[in-house]
Amino acid sequence: MNQHTILIADDHQVVRMGVRHVLESCPDGWVIAEVAHGHEVLTKLRTGAFSMVLTDLTMPGISGIDLIVRIKAERPEIPILVHSMYADGQTATRAIKTGATGYVTKGSDAATLIEGVRQVIRKRRFVSPDLVDEVLFSLSAGGSGSPHEQLSDREFEVFGLFVEGRTVNSIAAGLSLSPKTVSTHKIRLMRKLNAKTDVDLIRYAVAYGLDR
Fold first, then answer.
1. Any domain includes 212
2. Do both 136 and 156 map to the same domain?
3. H or E element in which residue 5 lies
4. Domain range enclosing 151
5. Residues 62-97: tens digit of each pLDDT
6. Are 68 and 100 in contact (CB under 8 A)?
7. Does 68 share its domain with 158?
8. Where are the beta strands (DSSP E) in 71-177?
9. Does 153 lie in the same domain as 137?
10. 36 pLDDT band (50/70/90 cuts)?
11. What predicted TM-score, i.e. pTM, was given to this entire model?
12. Cβ burial, residue 20 (10 Å; 0-12/13-18/19+)
């Protein structure tokens, strides 16, 4: 049996410890490495041999869709399993369209996470059971034409963070952007969603099941 090395990327130590415990409890003999920053993911991939990356979507530095794009650009052969708190089909679909092989929500049980890792190591698609129907429909239909599907990947990411209650400065720090750039993204996404206030953004998110 080939020994596989998994790179876990998450800025929360408790999450990394929990995921490591779950994966090391398996009989598969996986070797686990950890990083807490988006830039560290790329550094590790440049200096080591890894079978897959298990990554959160929100971390300091490079994160989210940008991180998936960078990984696939530098190491296209390495499959990516997203492990995220975002439990909506739209986020999962965007991640997979960008290059992720699988998507598992942090609300999933240990058995689902383990199965996701096993499938993604084999470079097979895997999506959390509670999202699979929505993701498959979106991928096959090419989108429903909803206003939020017109958002760029960055705008969609900023939208989700605002809905969580994050401030412009907080989002800017988390995404390594300037507050001015974040404000520009907000103006554009509000225009696309026909939202006049932050309350309108929250109402939109709830209406489309995008509130996380």
1. no
2. no
3. strand 5-9
4. 147-207
5. 878 889 989 999 999 999 999 998 888 888 888 988
6. yes
7. no
8. 80-84, 102-105, 126-127
9. no
10. very high
11. 0.73
12. middle
